[in-house]
Amino acid sequence: MLHAGYERAPLPPVRQEPHSATPDASAEPPAKVKKKPADQRDPFLDNAKYLTILLVAVGHVWDPLRDDSRMAGALYFVLYAFHMPAFIIVSGYLSRSFEGKPRQIKRLVTGVLVPYLIFQTVYTFFMRWASDNPDREFHYQEPGFALWFLVALFLWRLTTPLWKSMRWPMPVALAVAVAAGVTPSISNDLNLMRVATFLPYFVLGLQLRPEHFQIVTRRRFRMLALPVFAGALLVAYWAVPRMSKGWFLHDKAAQDLGAPAWVGGVMTLATFGCGLVLTAAFLALVPRRHMWFTALGAGTLYAYLLHVYPIKVSREFEWYDMDWVDHPVSRVVITLMAVVMMTLLCTSPVRRVFRFAMEPKMEWFFRRDAGEQARAREKASAPPRTPARTDSAHVGAPAPAHAEPGAAAPDAAEYARSGSSYETGGSRRGGKHTR
């Protein structure tokens, strides 16, 4: 039996709103600025990474040549003053979104740690053959040749949330670098000397914003870039017989370089300042638009790891002792060969061949995230989308959300690990100036 007190009054008739020629005020206004798609990469950063990876190889092929020529030594000093700082600053900038989330840790392990373990193992077998030392041990705590960067990148990125939470991260990072530079007791394990002394560049990259890169690419900075490099070359030419290259390699303490501790602290700060100035000059010269080599910026980490073997072959088999190497033209040819080699190692075919080692998915190794599983089930059970209606009844209705619930913004760390890195991935994600 129904109670009258609970009867509901009939609803009033629905009023038909007159059609209006103007859109409803609640309708979303057209966007004034067109944002980049989530999978679009920034050509400026890819260009910078490609050019820095070329400089890495050029520096390695110049090393055996610098003893016979003061000018070659000066070019080597200038190159080593900024090419790794520039590479590390860009890697830090592209690591800003790292917060230690499970998916980010997974990508860090599969994109940095696992490739290090694989290539350190391969490097050991390679050196057993190249150096005729079949008893060479597996020293995973001592990175071989250029593999130290993967260890450093792994440790830097793990500590990114800490540096982002600090009030004064740069002074703290510089203090760590200075302290490491005057502590000869630091062992070679994990190449901690370089991890600590190059740390300020990574932390600086974490603090940068897109507008900072826009500043250095202004016309007046581009006009100053070449004079800055010319001045640096003159200073380096003067310094070649007076200082050790170890100040730029950051692999030894001041005492190991024959200098007192206070000199080590001063030189750490001086090389940091020099690296910043030359990096700014270098970035001012980097093209901002798409170039023929822009897509190669996605393969810089491939080139970084694979170029180790040709470089070591040239040294172990004493190619630099050949008579033709001493000619100035031969030095130019060797430099061009290094550029061509790195360009080929950045290409898509090489990335496809070695992706199993550089970007393993390893789904079998990790537990699948519960939220990811829920989103997958929701996506599978969702009905197919229908085209949006445009009749007046739907004018002003909110647009459907196309992003999956909980989906995060593209992680810029993809740059550092596959282009670098970064490296530090192609045009899949990350690397945007706008977050």
Outline the structure in words.
With 435 residues, the chain is mainly α. The chain has 18 helices and no strands. It has helices spanning 43-62, 70-93, 102-130, 148-158, 160-165, 169-181, 192-197, 199-207, 210-216, 219-239, 246-249, 261-285, 300-306, 308-316, 328-345, 348-358, 370-381, 415-418. Helix 2 (70-93) crosses helix 10 and helix 6 runs antiparallel to helix 8 (199-207). It is globular and about 70 Å long. It starts with 42 loop residues before the first helix and ends in a 17-residue tail after the last helix. Residues 1-9, 17-35 and 390-435 have low confidence and may be disordered.
What is shown here, in short?
With 435 residues, this protein is mostly helical. Helices cover 54% and strands 0% of the residues.
* Secondary-structure element string: HHHHHHHHHHHHHHHHHH
Structural class: mainly alpha
Percent range of helical residues: 40-55%
Could you tell me the number of beta strands?
0
How many helical stretches? 18
Low-confidence stretches: 1-9, 17-35, 390-435
What's the main sheet like? none
Range of strand content? under 5%
User: Mean of the pLDDT scores?
Assistant: 82
Overall radius of gyration? 27 Å
Shape: globular
For the record, give the distance between the C-alpha atoms at the N and C termini, rounded to a whole number.
62 Å
